[in-house]
Predict the structure.
Amino acid sequence: MRAVSRIVLALVIGAAGPVDGQQRPPTLYPGSVLRITVANNPSAPIIGPLFRSDEHGIVLRQHGDTVRVAWPDVARLEIRRSVSRRRTGTLLGAVSGFAVGAAVGLAAGGSCEEDRWFGENRCRIMLSAGLGGLGAITGAIIGSTIGSRPGLRWEEVQVRPLEVAVTPAARGIAVSAIVRF
């Protein structure tokens, strides 16, 4: 039984260390916009830029005043991050631009009936591909421009990575631990 408990303990301690590729927790700087959910009022989070933090709690600026939240009262802490959507905008713009250009090329293929060089079918395909390519380039430029506007998302910050509880039991004490990583 002792060997099993030692193995479990070694695995827990080993898993608590940083792993390559694992993201580091975000750093809080003065001015970072935070959203704090307080334990006694979870429906009304406190949002504001960080003024300072110390071992007693967090101080935010709100409406020209400062608000202090003690660490034990913090149920959830999130930091606002800006995210670029340029890649998604470029891809969506290119695909939709190609689809529109190809549809216009197929619809405009009526002028290909008397084409001597390619014939009617090849002319429609080439017109559709050419206008589709032009639409893809135009759509990618427009999508990249629109997608470059930063979006916002909230990233959770672990406040208590380790929680330990000690309670009396029938034969001594019971210890429980919660490790978040």
Q: What stands out?
A: The chain is about 35% helix and 35% strand. The longest helix spans residues 120-147.
